[in-house]
Amino acid sequence: MTDHPPAILASQAFQRRLLDWFELHGRHDLPWQQDRTPYRVWVSEIMLQQTQVATVIPYFERFMARFPDVQALAAASRDEVLHLWTGLGYYARGRNLHKAARTVVAEHGGEFPVGSLEAMAALPGIGPSTAGAIIAQSTGWRAVILDGNVKRVLARLHAVEGWPGRPAVERRLWALAEHYTPDHRVVDFTQAMMDLGATLCSRGRPDCVACPFNDACRAHARGEQRRFPESKPKKAIPTRHAAMLLLQDDAGRVLLEQRPASGLWGGLWSLPQFEDEAGLLGWLDQHAPRAELDAAWSSFTHVFSHFRLEITPRPARVTRLDAVGESRRWFDPEAPDSIGLAAPVKGLLESLRPFTLSAPESPHSDVQEK
DNA sequence: AAGTCGGGGGA
DNA sequence: TCCCCAGACTT
Asked: Tens of pLDDT along A233-253?
């Protein structure tokens, strides 16, 4: 047969079972579930894109403490926004968040256009699923979401073949999500779908015994729940090399360069980076011919989703460097200021600090001396 | 339609 | 180690 039969469960029956499950087993105490303003929901949804809840929570709390409303965020500098984003990844999210805040203030009078899915999705960083999530969660109006959790639940329930990254598969999943989404209790419904996918219908070890849909789930009926949704066809990822110049002046400050606004680590500060040692030496020869080179540090690898970057830090010292230029600056590792740093660079700069500085404000030190 | 963006966590 | 995760954007 070429056609899927209609829904296994009537839409209303699905909703009733899901909401009953949610009352008992769903998550009701996440930080963004309190005071569900469009602003708070929006920030949480952006942070949660491709990022798990446990990772997001501390970032969300810090962000709200510093930027309690969209006006505060719009008034902030991009550097400060990216500083609070450092370590969370996908930095375009942080840039888009900042840009969208300014758009909301400048063009929407400081209020999110939650009455219009199209207007929400027109804001940078908000796609179709996030737009639906913000509307549903902050207003309770009917809106359809399709994130990774919902995709997994629906792909299993209906045994939808194919990788969800393929447009045909995604269209099918959108249609299913549209079919099951109710007119009422949409806040709970959307949260329940995500909770079901994140906990019970998890990727690795779905707990089908406890699932309210185990009598209707086609993947479970076949004993193939682990096979859905199909995973992305894999490709070997290449390794690239980078020489990073760790140039310190006699005060111990380190020369940083700002990355181009778009692309890898866009807008973040990093070390001057070269394809190889020759490039690094050539740059030094031109910009700081009197610098004293030290031996290269041992290389380490930073892994991205589509390539590995083998980084070789090359320390050098200089007493004075003129004409630092527009997109360069000196950075004091012992008095770090609020800028966005590329993750491996942040680690390198922290390793420059002596162990015995004054006690850090947050008690998170791994290895305490003594 | 395919490629790009990242760090963390689980298995 | 490998794979994936509350996707969106660019080409």
From this structure: 777 778 888 999 999 999 999
